[in-house]
Amino acid sequence: MEKQDNLRYSEADLKEFEEIILKKLMDARKELDFIKDSISRRNDSGTDDTTGGNSKTLEDGADTAEKEQLNQLAARLQKYVTQLEHAQIRIKNGTYGVCIDTGKLIPKERLRLVPHTQHSIEAKLARK
Fold first, then answer.
1. pLDDT in tens, 46-98
2. Distance, CA of 100 to CA of 95 (rounded, Å)
3. What is residue 29's predicted lDDT score, i.e. its pLDDT?
4. Among residues 92, 128, 109, 104, which one has the least CA distance to residue 119?
C-alpha cells in the first residue's frame, strides 16, 4: 500500500500544477480569442479595394496564406487548450502526473514546463 503513495503527487504539488495549468489556460484562451478575432476581421475587410488590377490578385493570395496560417495557429491553440483542460480533469480524478506508458511519476520539472503532458521523457523518447 505504501508504494501507492509514491505514485501520486501531494495535494500541495497538485495545487501548484493546477495554478500553472490555469495560468497557461487563461493565456492560451486569450491568444485564441485574439486570433479568432483577427480571422473574422480579415473576413469582413474585403470591400475597401480601390486599386483594382493585378495587385488585387497578389493581395488576395497573401491574405489567403495569412488567413491559413492564422487558422492553423488557432487549431494548434485549440488543441493545447483541450490538453490543458484534460490535465485539469486528471488532477481532479487523481491520475495527474502519472506516465500513461510507464505508470511512474513524471518529474516535477517536466510537469512545470509541459503541464499537460501524460508521458515521461523516457516514454516520449521510446515512442519515436
1. 555 455 555 666 667 777 888 899 999 999 999 999 999 999 999 999 999 99
2. 9
3. 97
4. 104
Report residue 20 as a C-alpha cell: 500553472
**Model-level pTM?**
0.78
Q: What is the pLDDT of residue 84?
A: 98
44-68 residues labelled b (16+ CB within 10 A) or e (exposed):
eeeeeeeeeeeeeeeeeeeeeeeee
Site of grid cell 495587385: 55
Domain extent listing, the chain = 2-44+58-96
- Yes or no: say if 54 and 90 are a contact pair by the CB < 8 Å rule: no
Which alpha helices (DSSP H) does 1-128 contain, by range? Answer: 2-5, 11-44, 54-93, 108-113, 121-127
What does each C-alpha distance from 49 to 76, 115, 123 come to in angstroms?
A: 32, 46, 54
Let me know the angle formed at the C-alpha of 11 by 5 and 12, rounded to the nearest 5 degrees: 120
Residue 25 CA to residue 80 CA, distance in Å, equals 8
